[in-house]
Amino acid sequence: MNVSQSLQKSKIFFDLVFVSVILFLVRSNLFLDAGAFSINNLFISLICMIAWFLVGRSMGLYEDYRNTQFAIEWIAFLKTILLYSLIVSCLFYFVLSQVAFGRAHLFIHFATLFFLIPVQKISIRLFYKRFRVADRVIRKVLIVGAGSNGKEFYSKFVKSKRYGYELTGFIGEEEDIELNGHYLGKTSDLDSVLLTHELDDIIVTIPIKDETVLEKIVTSGESQGKMIRVIPDFHRFGSRRLQVNQIGTLPIISLRSLPLEKYDFKLLKRGFDIVFSFLVIVLVFSWVFPIIAILIKLESKGPVFFIQDRWGLNNSLIRCFKFRTMSVSSKDIDENGNYLQARKNDPRITKVGAFLRKTNLDELPQFLNVLLGSMSVVGPRPHPVPLNIQSKKLVDNYLLRHWVKPGITGWAQVNGYRGETAKPYLMQKRVEFDVWYVENWTFWLDQQIILQTLVNMVKGEKNAY
Q: What does the alpha-carbon distance between residue 455 and residue 443 come to, in Å, rounded to a whole number?
């Protein structure tokens, strides 16, 4: 068992202990009642522990967060406690109503978990950092490849010993002075290295250009009872979120993760889009629309709506609805054929239009796009066709953002990359955030983006013009 597994089991164990102990404390008035360990309380404890474990695993609470900020683990915890509270409440009120579990006890149980579990998780982090449990080396590793992959694996996962690895040495075709005496020879020397050095794992980090090289490494390593682990050199083509699947009996590697390829995730996102957009249209758009329409008409002649062709899912053409914020005579293309983005103090924007853009109310009609299925509430913002054509030639991975439906708000927007992208690097950063969203989508990430969007609307955004 490596340190990562040890840490995961520790986190699960202490979480379940906290859930059960807090529950018994609450149910028995600090263990003062004689029936603290009654069959009823034991049953409730078992149900709650199972619920916490299943929810925590599904929300990513037990991932390895040692190399990340606590804020990331906090978000996973927050999602867990919210879903756990909802599930347990529903269970004991609608399914197990015959089991006595009062509202006051439930509330105190949830509230205590909310405050104490984060303290416990910070304590575990400090324990593993201070006492360096991983200093008890569990696996000694030989790294095949002294290139950037091998050095990165060493610096991130071996050097600090936090992952329970200790370096036996490197082998590669060329010796590197940066290896500080850890170079043991070429790949052709593997057999002799295995005989003369103590090691448990062989980490292969070299690009496999010749299958016979990998075959020799595997044959030699396994003949000596060593575990072979291969780090594929595919990340140079894109992100490191590789997916290994099977088509029939054939393994296949996808260079990028795409969660919304899965039908159940796609269905979940679409279901939320329908419900959320319907509620916005009925509760907000229905009465805001007449007011905005009157204001637009009073200031300038022309239609209330601005309808523009944009690119949607898989570069398909969609008709995107907005409230008109510019004068009708405004031009979109300059004399050189370049698309004219809205900019600060743009003379084309009307006074009402400036207010609508500042408050994001000009995007409100796009909930009709969402309800009709051409857009989503959250996703990469759709760009006008001329801007797409212009950007796809200048910006790396630009078209990857069209692997999902465009959204009314997005990950790039809540991170400050909205508005004009006059300089290429601004569009590049926006695309990087969009592609990250495409590869890391979760239902809860969408809720986070919606919440951040609402907060930004209240605070105001400097790039909203």
A: 19
Task: Measure the CA–CA gap between 55 and 461, rounded to whole angstroms.
Answer: 35
Can you tell me the distance from the alpha carbon of 416 to that of 461, in angstroms, rounded to the nearest whole number?
Answer: 8
Interatomic CA distance for residues 231 and 349, integer angstroms: 53
Reported as a single tens digit per residue, the pLDDT across 330-344 is 777 666 666 667 767
- 260-279 tens-digit pLDDT: 888 888 888 999 999 999 99
Give the whole-angstrom CA distance, residue 29 versus residue 238: 56
Task: Find how far residue 12's CA is from the centre of its chain.
Answer: 22
Q: Which tokens hold the place of 334?
A: 């300059």
| CB contact at 8 A, 325 and 341 | no
| Angle (CA) 42 47 51, round 5° | 145
Determine the 3-state secondary structure of 174 from DSSP: coil
Can you tell me the distance from the alpha carbon of 311 to that of 317, in angstroms, rounded to the nearest whole number? Answer: 5
DSSP of 235-284, one letter per residue? GGGS-S--EEEEETTEEEEESS--GGGSHHHHHHHHHHHHHHHHHHIIII
Give all domains of the chain, ordered by start, each with its CATH number: 3-130 (no CATH), 135-233 (3.40.50.720), 263-459 (no CATH)
H or E element at residue 3: helix 3-27
What are the C-alpha distances in Å from 44 to residues 18, 52, 55, 392, 426?
A: 14, 12, 16, 57, 53
pTM, rounded to two decimals: 0.63
61 within 8 A of 116, measured Cβ to Cβ: no
